[in-house]
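Now for one specimen:
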Amino acid sequence: MADLHIDGVVKSFGETQVLKGISLDIRHGEFIALVGPSGCGKSTLLRIIAGLESQSAGDIVIAGRSVAGVRAADRNLSMVFQSYALYPHLSVADNIAVPLRMRTMGAVQRLPLVGRWMPGAAERNREIDAEVRKAASTLEIETLLDRKPGQLSGGQRQRVALGRALVRDPAAFLLDEPLSNLDAKLRVQTRGEIAELHRRLGATFIYVTHDQVEAMTMSSRIAVMMEGQILQCDAPDLVYEDPEDIRVAEFIGSPKINILPAELNGGSLRVLDRDIARLTRVADQPGIRLGLRPEALRLSGADSVLTGVVAHHENLGSEVFAQIEVPGLSERVVLRADPSARRRLGLGATVGLDFDIGDALLFDTSGKRLRPVIEAARAAHQVA
């Protein structure tokens, strides 16, 4: 059992601080995704955990032991890189065996010609071969062991990289954008395979990605990072449904959440000069923002909160997305609707939109979440 604790980690490159006091507890067996836009510091944090970068301040504790100053090779962690980092001149079997040979065999024993004749080398090679075949069986790549990386597909090379990590029996697997070099169809297949591997092994996975879909579908918790900080770390459903910060709400979710300008005055919540609810336990303030997921909106009849014109629509078969231009709003509102609504969402059609105030997310001027109590809401007019 190996819990991992990140305690106040700071990283600076010159005068630029890329990690700003990151703290995070990762329990043994978790699949945690570090997700955020490029440049947010997620890969730097992973490299610090691995021992490939040193932190400017703070500590990494693995299984109750600080690893400050401990070499990467001695941290009992396995890292899978975006580029796979396979040796092109070695077979798949030899690529997977590299960490075992480096850890358990002397320099002379590893020599290609004379090493096999050294005392103990033959027995150790048999043990390594058995471990390589066990990992290959787990990843279903037994038939590839004699091939070279150049003869493999992208997905097969990814499995080999995972196999090389697997044979080390690490305290945690560190994966840095491992699917970014695969095409869209193969990414979907491989992310399922990685999630299934995690379930079978019961090991700790720390997974870096900029792709929110990967984070949402694979992990038990998501740490959303921006500008060197963790904004929120929660289960995927909570991050989507209950974001603590407007930046989290805007980053997680596709299509992106709709953000409408609003204001609180005398306890009345106003959107586009219309009173839509009475709220308590929140101070009056102008310039707040109201967030609505595309599926929270519904087509309505007269007296809608929002009225606009369909500027674009996308029919995906199982659902329809419509972009609606609403007077008074600088950005189009996106609606996710059932296929039965297709005929009402033709280009140029005028439509009304309503929502339940309980489905709205409110944020203050700084972007922090507001959690008022709803005292009363206007009647919604929904068309069945």
Remarks:
- Residues 4-247 form a domain with the Rossmann fold fold (CATH 3.40.50.300).
- Residues 379-384 have pLDDT under 50 and may be disordered.
- DSSP finds eight helices and 22 strands in the chain.
- The first strand starts at residue 4 and ends at 13.
